[in-house]
């Protein structure tokens, strides 16, 4: 393809190709601080391409493809090329990665121990992780957390954080503007703006962390903490995993071990400050 | 319903992990995970290696469970066995 | 990209054929090879082919992941065959496994790392209604489809409309012939079933010559050559191994191909497996055919990002595959109906 960029996020080496220079330039800004290993072959390929070659010039509309393609995926306008790249990277990892059990969950770590938060979009797991990552925690990832079936450790996937809607202002108030990507307004997922993780989180992206606390956050309603049994946590995490079935017994072993060794809670919270307070309270209690 | 005869999975085919009130069963033949509650794990444990009908199964389970003289034990067991068969955990002999 | 650079798809084919050493690849070459292999659904096949080869560490790790995942996926595919047996055997319905599941059940070399999609089985046409009922009773359901597609399948195709299992979410294709009824060629389905052989774990699979006929038919007479490199790899490995154990295999293959009306497809498959994978074919199979060139171009039509190039050629093969399946008037009607739905 005419334009391309290599990005390493956690254990995955991506190769991203594009028919246009703009999405690649935007990726270069977001991922400038990530480690580069030009000699390393790519595990996953993402292609951002025009549906018809002439469309590249008339009204650019970006299709996202690569190793795996979702037939119904909608093309996006070129101004949202970064979102197309992000969706493409997510898809290739969600469907193609087999070395670790992939949880659709955010994670932060402190003292080598990981807090894993799993929930639907809208649960606030990404925002909580982003905010915690600006404090005393190391951000491991806002979207995916990897579990090593052999060691049981959590591994980071610290891609650029995808802030949505209200979370944009909440986080922007706390960080240097140089760490924010361009604002993409009115995407199919609402307003989106990327946050570059802190340099220390990127530098530590290969350091595993021991799972210490599993949270299933729910945004809205009064503050509440509800302990969750091993069985329910198991069921929820199979649903939150994109490759549990494909891993066979390795996935089964990893997941039974995770829910047995890690205390799990459902939490409800009306605002981010309360959510963070609940997280810190539970973290203090699990020590 | 006729008293059908079922066969348990061969030894080593199932990995059974209790998780609180649920029991997770991994079937190495199908690579599937089944989440079941009592009395499914007990039925599977009582099936043994040879072919087994509900009367035999009821007698074995009666050694460790108190059925209180209930007369529908066998029909309940037959229903559970057909559910286990649909999951592939047991097969019609 | 220089004119002299060998394309990733050709490097990929060379690696499978053993014409090129993995250790001779530059690190950047692997990007394209891995991308093409994924696009052809053959990454685990390549991982098996290059097991033990001198590979960059990250490629070796990726290949190990792929081999492990393929082993899980094959076990899952074989379980579908077992569940079909549990549904059909009590009704006395015999069935023959086809394609990937058959190769795995028979422990064939081409099964190593091979991706298996749906479960494909062949039953006698006289058993098809009973098979349908038995599967519906055992938890399979119709995949929701529109009335035209359903009508089309039942009237013209060689299989039931696809069924999906409600709890396992896996599809089964129940065939009563290996090519559509409307196809210009109609292989002898009765002979396929009655001459089937038993695999090690008791499943029926096609006999060696019929299996190679079906593989060639599936690739050349039925499909639009999608997945062609994989089907050709299957054909190459199975004919190589069948011929190694039975010196009369190529004769048998010729005889069965004539019986089924598939000589052209089988001979072309043999020539293409020779041209791409370096297969050694028997005397009498070693000819040249000018039109093979178009097939080779179609098989090699991928860029270094794994994308299909030459879309016109791809579309020509799509129309060709429909031409083969249907008489011209019906084809026009079908493409019209399909087109209107876009």
Could you explain how this protein is built, in words?
The complex is a heterotrimer of chains A (287), B (93) and C (342). With 287 residues, chain A is an alpha+beta fold. Chain A has 9 helices and 16 strands. In chain A, 31% of the residues lie in helices and 31% in strands. The N and C termini of chain A lie far apart (51 Å). The model of chain A has no long low-confidence stretch (mean pLDDT 91). Chain B has one domain (6-86). Helix content of chain B is 37%, strand content 25%. Chain B contains 3 helices and 5 strands; from the N terminus they run ββββαααβ. Chain B has a 3-stranded antiparallel β-sheet with strand order 2-3-4, with no helix packed on it. A two-stranded antiparallel sheet of chain B has the order 1-5. Chain C is α/β, with parallel strands linked by helices and 342 residues long. Among the domains of chain C are: 74-206, 2-Layer Sandwich (Beta Polymerase, domain 2), CATH 3.30.460; 207-295. The longest helix of chain C has 32 residues, at 57-88. Helix content of chain C is 56%, strand content 6%. Chain C has helices spanning 8-17, 27-39, 43-49, 57-88, 99-105, 128-137, 147-156, 189-194, 208-222, 228-245, 249-260, 263-277, 292-299, 311-325, 328-340, and strands at residues 96-98, 119-122, 140-142, 163-165, 171-175, 197-198, 204-205. Chain C is globular and about 60 Å long. In chain C, helix 9 (208-222) runs antiparallel to helix 10, helix 9 (208-222) crosses helix 11 and helix 10 (228-245) packs across helix 12. Chains in contact: A-B, A-C, B-C.
What layout of secondary structure does this protein have?
The complex is a heterotrimer of chains A (287), B (93) and C (342).
Chain A: E1 3-9, E2 12-18, H1 21-30, E3 44-50, E4 61-66, E5 76-77, H2 81-96, E6 101-110, E7 113-118, H3 125-133, E8 138-141, E9 144-147, E10 154-155, E11 161-164, H4 166-172, E12 184-187, E13 190-195, H5 199-203, E14 210-219, E15 224-228, H6 230-240, H7 244-247, H8 249-261, E16 264-269, H9 272-286
Parallel strand pairs in A: 2-3, 7-14, 14-16
Antiparallel strand pairs in A: 1-2, 3-4, 4-5, 6-7, 6-8, 6-9, 9-10, 11-13, 12-13, 15-16
Chain B: E1 6-8, E2 14-19, E3 22-27, E4 32-36, H1 40-47, H2 54-64, H3 73-87, E5 90-92
Antiparallel strand pairs in B: 1-5, 2-3, 3-4
Helix pairs in contact in B: 2-3
Chain C: H1 8-17, H2 27-39, H3 43-49, H4 57-88, E1 96-98, H5 99-105, E2 119-122, H6 128-137, E3 140-142, H7 147-156, E4 163-165, E5 171-175, H8 189-194, E6 197-198, E7 204-205, H9 208-222, H10 228-245, H11 249-260, H12 263-277, H13 292-299, H14 311-325, H15 328-340
Parallel strand pairs in C: 1-7, 2-5
Antiparallel strand pairs in C: 1-2, 3-4, 4-5, 6-7
Helix pairs in contact in C: 1-2, 2-3, 3-4, 9-10, 9-11, 9-12, 10-12
